[in-house]
Amino acid sequence: SIPLGFFSGIGNASGNGILIKGSNYLEALNTIDTVVFDKTGTLTYGKLAVAAITPENDLEANALLSIAKRIEAHSNHPIAKAILSAGETAHPQFNSSEMGFVDLSERYEELSGMGIKATLDGKTYLAGTEKLLKTHQIDFTPLVSPANTVVYIAADGLYLGSITLEDHIKDEARAVIEILKKAHKKTVMLTGDQIAVASAVANALHLDDYHAELMPADKYKIVNQLIEKGHQVAFVGDGINDAPVLAGATLGLSMGDLGSDAAIEASDIVIMKDQLTSILDAFDIAAQTKKIVT
Ligand code: ADP
Ligand code: MG
């Protein structure tokens, strides 16, 4: 039977916007020795803004942005949201009908952790990581050590240019990491983003470890390896591309602007507030509950 203290612990948590799916997860919180974070939307706000548009050759910046909007039209990734909400700069000398976009055949493929492949009016477009374009044999020169996320764009095998997106580390992130480290928990970040972006965030937050340029399956593998080494691992993510690792961790915590039911389903603890301090609240509530029960 479950001691009554657990129910009050779960009730206490839900009053703080922390939904714990069962008393066993509350108990498991007390055993966690490693906290693994997703980057975009978890350690950072994930509210990206277009910082630079770098078209290739004589393509107009606005034209490149419009093409990117077509490619990203059906994605709910923070990158897509940023591109779709970006205003076209200066004097738009271009609209989609001039490009001959007539909605004949549209096909969108979200390549999780890499970007988008879209077929629009018989042309194949790519928008995503350096790796995405390279695996499609696009000839281009990537930016050198970008400090921000870069989306590279190509059409029918031809490089069109890049769009740079700026994100910001959450205000409370540094303090939360420091408190977790003081509580002897190892802090790790896993991201699909480029190494230069990841290392900037990892250094700013004094994280113990980080891995970049990962596919969702790689995130799962890394967490699984930690578990096999005997660690009790909590994974904290915003749910976008994170469902496998949320389910695979000792404890999966999803937080923030939870777009997908899959993420809520895959996680053991759902944090309604987009605030990293809620993780500390969850640990505190679990520790207090343990005291009441024992
Ligand atoms: P993170 O691990 O930082 O949360 P994701 O796994 O969601 O990032 O995505 C990894 C990388 O894949 C992104 O940094 C981006 O470069 C690329 N990517 C993912 N989705 C898109 C998209 N809709 N458009 C362009 N690029 C994308
Ligand atoms: Mg993410």
From TrEMBL:
Localization per record: Cell membrane
Q: What top-level branch of life does the organism fall under?
A: Bacteria
Q: Which family does it belong to?
A: Belongs to the cation transport ATPase (P-type) (TC 3.A.3) family. Type IB subfamily.
Name assigned to this protein: Cd(2+)-exporting ATPase
What organism, scientifically named, is this protein from? Fusibacter paucivorans
- Where the shown chain sits in the full protein? 363 to 656 of 713
